[in-house]
Design a protein that fits this description.
The complex is a heterodimer of chains A (318) and B (293). Chain A has helices at 2-28, 34-39, 45-55, 61-73, 87-122, 127-141, 144-158, 174-209, 211-218, 223-245, 247-260, 266-275, 279-307, 310-314. The model of chain A is unreliable at 314-318 (pLDDT under 50). The two termini of chain A are 19 Å apart. With 318 residues, chain A is mostly helical. Chain A contains 14 helices and no strands. The radius of gyration of chain A is 24 Å and the shape is globular. Chain B has 293 residues and is mainly α. In chain B, 72% of the residues lie in helices and 0% in strands. Chain B contains twelve helices and no strands. Chain B has helices at 2-7, 15-26, 29-46, 48-51, 83-118, 123-134, 138-149, 153-179, 183-190, 195-232, 243-252, 259-286. In chain B, α3 crosses α12 and α8 (153-179) runs antiparallel to α10. Mean pLDDT of chain B is 82; it is low at 1-8. Chains A and B meet through α1, α6, α7, α11 and α12 of A and α6, α7, α10, α11 and α12 of B.
Chain lengths: 318, 293
Amino acid sequence: MGRYVLRRMLESAVTLILATIVVFLGIRALPGDPARTLAGEESDPATLAAIRQTYGLDQPLPVQYVRYVQKAATGDLGRSPRTGLPVAETIGHALPVTLQLAAFAITIAILIGIGAGVIAAVRRRRPAEWGANAVALLGLSVPNFWFGQMVILSLAIAYPLLPASGFVSIFENPVESFRHLLMPAVVLGSGLAAIIMRQTRSAMLDALLADYVRTARAKGLGGAQVVFGHALRNSLIVVITIVGLQLGALISGAVVTEQLFVLPGFGKLTIDAVFTRDYPMIQGVVLVTATAYILINLAVDLLYSVIDPRIRVGGAAL
Amino acid sequence: MTTVQETIPAIPVTLSTRRRVARRVLRNPLAVLGLVVVCAAMLTALLANFVAPYPFDQVNFSEPLRPPSGTHIFGTDSIGRDQLSRAIYGLRASVAVGLLSVVLSLSIGVPFGLLAGFYGWLDPVVSRLTDTLLAFPFLVLAVGLAAILGPSLSTAIIAIGIAQIPAVVRVTRGETLRLRHMDFVAAAVAGGAGDFVLLRRHILPNAVNALIVQATVAIPGAIIGEAVLSFLGLGVRPPTPSLGVMLADAQTFVRDGPWMAVFPGVTIVVLTLALNLLGDGLRDALDPRESRS
């Protein structure tokens, strides 16, 4: 156990260092003077000199890199030339929006995905299974931004039931927050729901044929008790794995969904930064995402090594 | 030495296996449907100049925002361009991205996967590199690349291709690990085959099936990826037609021209659905044990 945890943490540390190098070099791969890039397009020589000073751009690259990492580690991601605000502060304001959206989407995906997966596995070779499979296949083939457009078209424009844009925090007004986030969360969660459904179905099919389920049936346990108490419980580890693996897709999905529903979150910040050539912001956003992604993946890996001891032996390979 | 080597069958995968796979696919009606649609879409994209009823950039200010009709089956956009013709040319971008990004990811991912699976000491190095790539979610990677390279069709291809490299490396590495201890590889080693010959003639041909399965997931993913990037303005830029660009244009006219958002989307869905059906069929045919239906 200890060795596995240590190895996994060491691997994550190496990955994190490599990722910071990529982000660091990325901004220097741009043509032209990095000081000018970081300062934005209209900048006077005094600002440029100040930026060279702060970022130590006259120093050799390794020295610059160490300084960059030192600053980033203390939460200093530079300043946006566009807004003049610290990048870390802007990200801090956008993050709660994305986290609320993601939490809502994951909840919806898990409820629908597991529900449909169980039904499809229990009702084999019946219309319910075919229906669930067809919806899952559709869920994998429909791009989520187009699904979002269609949802807006039908539920916000043709039949104005829900607002098409805007964000209300759940801590301010739970009801309005629900109304504003329902469509985006369904759109963001739909792809994940399809994947969870497929995996739950196949894990349940395996579980329902396993010896311990036959034993439970032989003991005289009822259908529902076998399905939910025995088979589903052992299929749930799959769901944790999937949510962990789909994290990247979820982050990408959030970028698109926020753009579509005009939510002032992390994803919208990212896209806006590209179009305004706000390089410190792009650098900050990419660094924060990569760091979060590596740490969450580590957490998921360690979590299911606790749940399923077999993983520790074989390594958490895909 | 070389004479001994030639007497050893290089690859257990024979032509008859391939023929059996093809027969299994053709017996699956959904897979055949997928195949037909995919072939039709590729032909349409290739012959866009002949198939499209209008040039994709023909502006007609007297017919803006016309709903679907006999003369304009998909309707027209805000400056009177025929949406069907634009969708047909848009398929070109989809097909180009679908194929070229997969070629890119295979040409980088396969060598790395083979080396990582074959030389144990290289494995941790390659794994850390792929983990690093994986630490950047697809759109974040695309954002970074678009910031450096500028948005364009090639940026979309490069971003999608790079994002798919880790999966290719993993599949190739896994197959190499599995195959290198098999008897026919041991026989080739005994016959004096060098590392390069082993990888090129004995291991790679047997990893092809797994790579085909991987590609059947990657291609529809890449087509959706292109649409997403172009929709966000990070991929194909107007006036070049792309299904994603058309959907981005439709955003402004959701109220007055909802068909502008419906038809390009349906085109993407039909194409990716067909690819997924074909992919599922191929997967079942290549590895019947995996089949769950």
